[in-house]
Amino acid sequence: MRIVELSEENKKEVQENILHRSPQQFGPQEAIVREIIENVKANGDAAVFEYTAKFDKAQLSAENFEVTEAEIAQAYEEVDPALVDVIRKALVNIRDFHEKQKQNSWITTTEKGTILGQKVTPMQRVGVYVPGGKAAYPSSVLMNVVPAKTAGVEEVIMTTPCNSEGKVNPAVLVAAKEAGADRIFKVGGAQAIAALAYGTESVPKVDKIVGPGNIFVALAKKAVYGNVSIDSIAGPSEILVLADETANPRYVAADLLSQAEHDELASAVLITTSEELAKKVSDEVEAFTEVLSRKEIIRKSIDNFGCILVARSEQEAIDAANEFASEHLEIMMKDSFEVMTKIRNAGAIFVGEYSSEPLGDYFAGPNHILPTSGTARFFSPLCVDDFVKKSSIIHYSREALEEIHKDIEQFAKCEQLTAHANSIAVRFENEEE
């Protein structure tokens, strides 16, 4: 693994390399995505079936497009009962965490007759995209469906690719059933996003689309935003580890590779104050890579987007981590909790050597749908808030409005909005000045 000094030049080079993977950088693919979206928008199910045959080699029709209860029951037969048990244990943690995020509507009143408040309303229908290309992700099902259902969303529509026989990964189906997905359709890619955004004869139009996917899915979400809401335009996975001389190099290397195996565009970066640790981690990365099942993907990821940066001080390392604003940030330092308080930008922060990133992916409870490509500077993890709308409530009695009506009229006249001023003044036009 490449080891370089943490200089402004090297830091900028690594940042630009990581950002180059962002969906914002894939112009040529956007034309393909736009064509798919317009076709689905115009031709509905027929276009979806056409693309599914082309990309997934599956022959779908109105009769086998939606997953049936019988198919879900069959999935339970095919999944190891021990895995079902693990999914249920993880669900408890995920639900408990997201329950704490719920907000209630509120009202405040005054004796003069003002009522102000906020009404929190769940979205009616949400679409969840679950990838199914290089790997199946039942964990993503839990992380998307649970906060939506916790928020009170009435109907969760899930889409996920099927294989050439028209079959969906059984673990994904079990996770969907356990989490509470209402309907599941066998479609992936940009065509799935288009179907959710505009509706087809079979797929109902949703209010919001959430869930990770490949570059075509990300670009499709970007294209339909505005017609529907989306969670974010997610880029490839990334991890940044902050470590000093107290860190275990095997742990650090293993955690870096846990993200590198996602795909060739995944990014794994270590920032350390110890040159000795940097060398040991690099050696461990090489040794682990040789024995891991996805070593070809890992090797490309590490060679192209992996790096070890050696900082001159702890503060320099922290400052760099805040600039990177990584999706996943692990801290393995002598004073890990103290360092954590100085982190401003990160999707999820894992504190201490036994808080490895996969803990967050599967089991701890916090959501693993996280901001990527530096967007942790202004975006947050997927949460219950993503599935509700907030409406302001305003009520003034005549007495309350009378006391301040001239102030409002003056403000409106200042902006030369005389109809605004008149809307207030007309309520007091018969009163003596």
From TrEMBL:
Binds 1 zinc ion per subunit. Pathway: Amino-acid biosynthesis; L-histidine biosynthesis; L-histidine from 5-phospho-alpha-D-ribose 1-diphosphate: step 9/9. It comes from the Bacteria. Its cofactor is Zn(2+). Keywords: Amino-acid biosynthesis, Histidine biosynthesis, Metal-binding, NAD, Oxidoreductase, Zinc. It is an enzyme of class 1 (oxidoreductase). GO terms for molecular function: histidinol dehydrogenase activity; NAD binding; zinc ion binding. The keyword Iron-sulfur does not apply. Zn(2+) binds at residues 259, 262, 361, 420. The keyword Nucleus does not apply. It catalyses: L-histidinol + 2 NAD(+) + H2O = L-histidine + 2 NADH + 3 H(+). Its EC number is 1.1.1.23. GO terms for cellular component: cytosol. Pfam families: Histidinol_dh. NAD(+) binds at residues 129, 191, 214. SUPFAM superfamilies: ALDH-like. The active site is at residues 327-328. Catalyzes the sequential NAD-dependent oxidations of L-histidinol to L-histidinaldehyde and then to L-histidine. Belongs to the histidinol dehydrogenase family. This is Histidinol dehydrogenase. It comes from Eubacterium cellulosolvens (strain ATCC 43171 / JCM 9499 / 6).
